[in-house]
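Case study 2.
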Amino acid sequence: MNKERISNIVLLPLDSWHRAVLIVRDAALSLLLLLLCMLTISIIFSEVTNAGEAPKIYSGPYVAYVTEAGVYDGDTINAEIHIAPGQILLTGLRVAGVDTPEIRRSGCRTQAMKSLELVLGAQAKAFVENRYPVGKRFRVRNLQYDKYGGRHVAIVERKIVTGWQRLDDELLRVRPRIADPYGINKPVKPLQKLKSWCEGG
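Prediction:
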């Protein structure tokens, strides 16, 4: 009986066994890498927070690029952020520290102010597009979820001769004004918007 069982065993050549072992090993490594990537994403960008807990801030810096969708408006850039090796976050990135005029629907009271806001909004968008064209490499710091769903907010900086230039600082220096300080740049009630263009400011 034992001889019959032995005779039914198919012996593969050594190189076939070697190939089979390599295939199994590669599959196991690929699965492990996938699990590690998923764990990294869940740790870095978990939206689950306790009630009353401050938003999680990831200091970075992270390398980012302007996507083909480009600049949305003066304070939002469609970005590809490299958050970890092999991990890319595609998001509408809100520029921390500023609020710029709307480009589509104005919230101002009078028609004159509505018209002014849309003009200033187009100017703010053009200003950012000139400095952050499609494909532009830049960096982000203090990355976190924006309070509006589906977006992120961060300090946005581009490389210049003397170092790194913050976009919020650039926008706030423009005159006539195309941006108001907001959030980290607003000394009192940081989450309240100024919208000076709606107040004749």
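Confidence is low (pLDDT under 50) at residues 47-51.
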